[in-house]
């Protein structure tokens, strides 16, 4: 990890602001959620609890707030178990929805390579708390209003250092699709650009994050500007009004985000993290509702 | 504060908190206003009686009526057991599969109307179904003649 100075911070902030000002439509993190799962151990304590509050700007003037609570436990020198529960509030032209989203449970295994480098391998599951068919007054809602994608997913990942860079790879595969969304654009009571997502079926994602971590001389501040690439591996589909499945053209492809994470270590046991992210390359169509033009989050972590 | 309260209610109760916007409220009022509601005594082009499936209670009559705006399905003297995601289908058989989804069931009781898309070949759909899409459970069917 590099030691930073003020010029470096200003330079990185300018890059981030520049990217933020040149963003295209909106698709942030795939947020099938795994981009928020830490691939490296966040703290040295045996037990850690983290709460995180995030604000996300979505498509068609929707605003999302998520609240998550995480618990991680070091099971052995090499193995750590992480659990994260997410609830979300979405507010937009249809109204507001608040509900539990998903539970993530992952196990991380740290191994030493022959060259002495540490590599972290991660595997786990995402479990949905609803079937992605939340309604307001019996009106079916677009996916952006849903707090979960309604899929049981397998998650696998790896993290390691390559020179000064921090590399992360992950793969998220929906294995049980119980999405029962019933939004049909032609039957919607409000005009809008939300696509039909009746009985939506979602394809897998791969993620690649490359960061350039820096830390202050005192070790209190950590600073991790990073690029987050998410590739959606196929075109999603929905069932039309005739009960026939149709693929959604343009729903596969790349999303590229700029992300800035700043961590302040309050003590050995406690830390605060601020994260800012924005996309600058997006997919043509984003039917899953994972459309973020801006994401900001603050997290507090306590270990013992 | 309301949002924070809702978060806690959701976490503790494991149920969704929802609130409609003024725009949605207005749109729903417009859709259900007497001005746009069809005249109830419209003669039926086709009709049928609704039958229930196992464990479901249903009563009512299905009519196909002609409005100035196009064809509509009318559910008359209607009531059905509550379900989480009930849809109204025009169907080629007494079970879903080859069907035309007309939208969410508006209410579990009372007279209600559903637009049939222009160009629909009505003779290809001799059944009307009330179907729970979320749990893939058929609630009711009617043969329309």
| Major sheet strand order of chain B | 3-10-9-6-7
Q: What's the tally of helices of chain A?
A: 1
CATH class of chain A: Mainly Beta
Major sheet summary line of chain A: 12 strands, antiparallel, barrel
The overall average pLDDT of chain B, rounded, is 86
Count of folded domains of chain A: 1
Q: Strand share of the residues of chain B?
A: 35-45%
Shape of chain A: globular
Major sheet details of chain B: 5 strands, antiparallel
- With strands numbered from the N-terminus, the spatial order across the biggest sheet of chain A is 2-3-4-5-6-9-10-11-13-16-17-18
Protein structure class of chain A:
mainly beta
Task: Report the CATH superfamily of chain A.
Answer: monomeric porin ompg
CATH fold name of chain A, please? Porin
Outline of chain B, from the CA principal axes? globular
Query: Residue share in helices of chain A?
Result: under 10%
Estimated radius of gyration of chain B:
17 Å
Mean pLDDT of chain A: 86
Count of helical regions of chain B: 2
Instruction: Spell out the helices and strands of chain B N to C.
Output: HEHEEEEEEEEE
Number of strands of chain B: 10
Unreliable stretches of chain A (pLDDT < 50, length at least 5) are: 13-32
